[in-house]
Every structure is written in structure tokens, then in C-alpha cells.
Amino acid sequence: VSVPPLAPPRPFLTTHRVVSFYGTPLTGALGVLGEQSPEATVARLRAQAAAYEPLSTERAIVPAFHLLYAVAQGIPGPDGTYLQRLDDATVEHWVQLAREHGFLVFLDVQVGKSSVERELPRLFKFLVDEHVHVALDPEFAWGETGEPGEHIGHLTGPQINQAQALLQRFAIEHKLPTKILIVHQFLSGMVKRREVIRRFDRVELVFDADGFGPRHVKRGLWEQVIVDNDVELAGIKLFYKFDPDLMTPADVLSLSPKPVVVIYQ
């Protein structure tokens, strides 16, 4: 008798909203996560997340570390991928810190000249933890023809489906709840062949309206990336240093659809 697969778990983002700090623990230059000690990061993130709580009546607020796991660089490196990856011990430290505080972790992959099927399995040893999820950054995905540092990269619908399929299979094999996959975007050309993107019942696919600037620019970007594409699960990235009139939590939650992921860089 064949055993039917378990029913898909309830999607996490139906009842939760994520507020995360983006960056790498190695430097403050790439985002707020690396601007202070890990303990101070926890306190600062908690305070930022708490500002959403009175406004987020329909979803519980969950803080998250958004770690730049694979950072694109200008030199090929020994494996020719133009990527520098965080060492395992550093990742484990932040995964453990998140576990202790009830936070999530997102491991962000900039892809470089590598590929989704080559990079995602590197994360599997961390993804066995329920609270660890994935992000992909098309800006630095150069494929066969893109020139590192010269071109804004892109991912395709089939590549995003491939990432979802890998995560789905992994979640089923390890009897895990759903995995969240964030895809950053600030230009329509950063995601090509979008029409073929499928829904996977164990993956929650979030498109994040990335890019910095004044509020009116960010709202325009929101229309272009999120509204025009009928995005179901939407995220927004806010820049403490580069948004001249940083959106408040009330501004963020006045957007439609309401973001389920808010990332501070």
C-alpha cells in the first residue's frame, strides 16, 4: 500500500509578518546586520520589529537575520563563480543565535556566475533547521553571458521554479514546515519569463521590492514590481542610510498588498 504524502503544512506567512536586518557579520558596509555586535544586533532588531506590533493586528511579528551568505565579487575566485561565501562556523553561530531568540534566518545567495542548482544544496545543512530560509538576488546573477560588475543580472522563471522544486523536495524529505524563498527585484528585467513561475505548496515565494530612494520613488517601484505583477506575497527593503525619508512602519503597512516581509539594510 503506498502511503500518501503528508498534507502540506500551513503557510507561515498567513499568520506572521517578518521584520529582518540585512547584511553580513563581516562588515557594516553591506547593511545594518554588521554594524554592531551580534548581541547589540538582537536588541536593535527587536526594537525595530516591536514598532510594527501595534499595527500588525492580523499577523504576529517575527524578527529575522537576513544574512548575505554568498556575496558577488569582482574576481572569479578559485571556483570561477565570482562568489565569496560565509564560513560554516559563522552561519552556525547566527542560526544558533536566532534559535535562542525565536528569530528566523534567511541565507541570501547572489548567484554570481554559478547557478541555482549548484548553490542551493550548499545551504541544505542549515536548512534542516525549521527557522532557516532562503533568498536569491537576481541583481548579481550573471549567468553565461553577464559581465560581473558591468551588468545588472537576472533570474528566469524556470530558475525560480528550480529553486522552489529543490526546497520543496528538501522540505518533504526532512518532514519540515514550508520554506520561504525571497527574490529581490527593483527592475522588471531582473526576473525574466515570469509567466512560467509556478506555485509549490511547501514553498512560500516572496518578491521583495528592493532599491533605495525617496518615498515617491519607492512607491513607484512598488507599483512596478509588486502591483503590476499581481504579487501575492510581497516584501519591501528599506535602507537606513540611503532612503532620505525612511518609510515608517505605518507607511509600510499602508501599502497594498500589505508587505509580509520587511527588510532593513
Q: What can you see in these coordinates?
A:
With 265 residues, the protein is α/β, with parallel strands linked by helices. It has seven helices and eleven strands. The chain has helices at 38-50, 88-101, 116-119, 124-127, 157-173, 215-227, 249-252; strands spanning 16-23, 60-72, 83-85, 104-109, 132-136, 155-156, 179-185, 191-192, 203-209, 234-238, 261-264. It has an eight-stranded parallel β-barrel with strand order 1-2-4-5-7-9-10-11, surrounded by four helices. The chain has a two-stranded parallel sheet with strand order 6-8. The termini are far apart. 43% of the residues are buried.
Mean pLDDT: 95
Secondary structure tally, helices:
7
Instruction: Work out the strand percent.
Output: 15-25%
Over the alpha carbons, how many angstroms does the gyration radius reach?
Answer: 18 Å
Structural class: alpha/beta
Task: Count all strands and give the number.
Answer: 11
N- to C-terminal distance = 51 Å
Low-confidence stretches: none
**Main pleated sheet:** 8 strands, parallel, barrel
Rough outline: globular
Q: Strands of the largest sheet, in order across it?
A: 1-2-4-5-7-9-10-11
Order of helices and strands: EHEEHEHHEEHEEEHEHE
- Measured as a percent range, the helix fraction is 25-40%
